[in-house]
Amino acid sequence: MPELPEVETIRRQLSRKIIGKTIKSVKVRYSKVVRKTSASAFRRFLVGQKIKNLGRHGKLLFIRLANSKTIVIHLKLAGRLLIEKKDTAPRKLTEVVFGFKNFQMFYDDLRRFGWMKIISTSDEAGFLEKEKLGPDFFSRGMNLKKFKEILGKRGKSKIKPTLMDQSLIAGIGNIYAQEACFTAGLHPERKISTLSKGEFSKLYNALARVMKRAVGLHGASTDAYIDAFGKKGSFVPLLKVYGREGEPCLRCKIKLKKQILAGRGTVWCSGCQK
DNA sequence: CAATCGTCCTGCGGGC
DNA sequence: TGCCCGCAGGACGATT
Question: CA of A212 and C1' of B13: distance in angstroms?
Answer without folding.
Answer: 33
